[in-house]
Amino acid sequence: MFKGVRPIIYGGREVWPLIEGGKGVAVSNHMSSGAWAAAGGIGTVSAVNADSYDPEGKIVPQVYHALTRRERHEELIEYAIAGAVEQVRRAFEIAGGKGAININVLWEMGGAQRILEGVLSRTKGMIAGVTCGAGMPYRLSEIAAAHQVSYLPIISSARAFRALWKRAYSKASEWLAAVVYEDPWLAGGHNGLSNAEDPLAPQDPYPRVKALRETMREGGIKDDVPIVMAGGVWALREWDDWIDNPELGTIAFQFGTRPLLTKESPIPEAWKDRLMTLEKGDILLHRFSPTGFYSSAVRNPFLRNLEARSERQIAFSGEAAGDHQYQLDVGVKGKSFWVTLGDLHRAREWYGLGFTSALKTPDNTLVFVTPAEMKEIRKDQADCMGCLSQCGFSSWADTEGNSTGRLADPRSFCIQKTLQDIAHGGPVEENLMFGGHAAYRFKRDPFYSNGFVPTVKQLVDRILTGD
Asked: pLDDT digit string (tens) for 208-261?
């Protein structure tokens, strides 16, 4: 027998402990988040390069005109603030005083602190809280407190929260509304796997969340401050033993994947259709992201191409040494690279298959790509607008010198380009399609049979039944 969830007090009113997970570029927008709040939950506007609109209501393309990366970075920040403010205003209007509206910010996005300050200063009274992950957002509490909004850090371990609490959050504890535990093996998008954790060996979330609650108690945080379980959450009845559990304290639940397939979800129809075809195992936890973080996405041709590119990779030496006694004679146009005999044969084979350009990586290896791929990689690297605080693909860094000091990595990709493209109608098989590891359940859940796509209200009502 499903015991059900009870409303919690958040943002000064009763809301369901159901949070819409914030999803990157233009995916969690005003339509989905406003409808989620109107249904009595906590809707989340993504403040990551959100869309703005012209006077006719058409989306304003984020085109960059400046010649330098630094100047394009300033354009990006202007786009980001204007878009997020517009999305929040529209979401707040749709909510009609019900539920609550949060914004989601990635701490490692370019200009994160400036964007957060800019959005909060222009949306007073509309935003209840800020969820923030992808890094260690030490200044989140300070910024939220200054604007008198709640903050909800996204972490993947008790250890990470302890570091944030001791260094910063304990000084603004009254604005801590919840702690989001995002399971690194189950959640979609970027995940907080540490170097000590095995991506192929998922851990049970219960002991990890229990340890988080114990850490919170050590800091004097009361049990009525919720822990939000995020990642792999589909049907609440599967989490029944978490609800009203004294070991865990108050628990809320974040839904990231399920809101993708609703009437109000702004993603293109082709993306929605693809969600209905996924099988178990079609989501890949990978490390191709230019952020350096692990992330989870549909293993479509875009991702398979990145896998294949990294497999066409050989180590080299700048001089003949050890096993590297053979001078590479394909793909390098007269430059001296010394490789093993086996790698020389492999490089010649790839060359014969059309992968005729060898590109250096930061790890003293060469990857072999087609001339068309090389041209696209070089153009994307040159067009960089600094969407991340540090980008492995372009070597951009949000620092004084604007460089990571490392060679740009051709094994990665321009994440801004592909996320903008897929969100605005680009081919779903040729772009990065983030997804949680439970996405295969769309095809199996009878709620979605015969191609049924619910409204957000219908989805929230369904979730409240336990299914």
From this structure: 999 999 999 999 999 999 999 999 999 999 999 999 999 999 999 999 999 999
Instruction: Kindly report, residue by residue over 130-161, the tens digit of the pLDDT.
Output: 999 887 888 999 999 999 999 999 999 999 99
Q: Is 1 exposed, middle or buried (0-12, 13-18, 19+ CB in 10 A)?
A: exposed
CA distances from 130 to 21, 101, 177, 233 (A): 12, 9, 9, 21
Same domain, 203 and 311: no
SS (H, E, C) 283-295: EEEECCCCCCCEE
Report the C-alpha gap between 189 and 107 in whole angstroms: 14
Its domain, for residue 131, covers: 8-272+442-464
In 3D space, the residue among 33, 8, 50, 179 whose CA is nearest the CA of residue 93 turns out to be 33
Q: What are phi and psi of 305, to 5 degrees?
A: -65, -40
CB 271 within 8 A of CB 428: yes
Q: Are residues 368 and 259 in the same domain?
A: no
Q: Judge whether 291 lies within some domain.
A: no
The dihedral built from the CA positions of residue 445, 450, 455 and 458, taken in this order, carries a sign that is negative
Asked whether residue 1 is assigned to any structural domain, the reply reads: no
Helix (H) or strand (E) holding 161: helix 158-167
Confidence of residue 334 (pLDDT cuts 50, 70, 90): confident
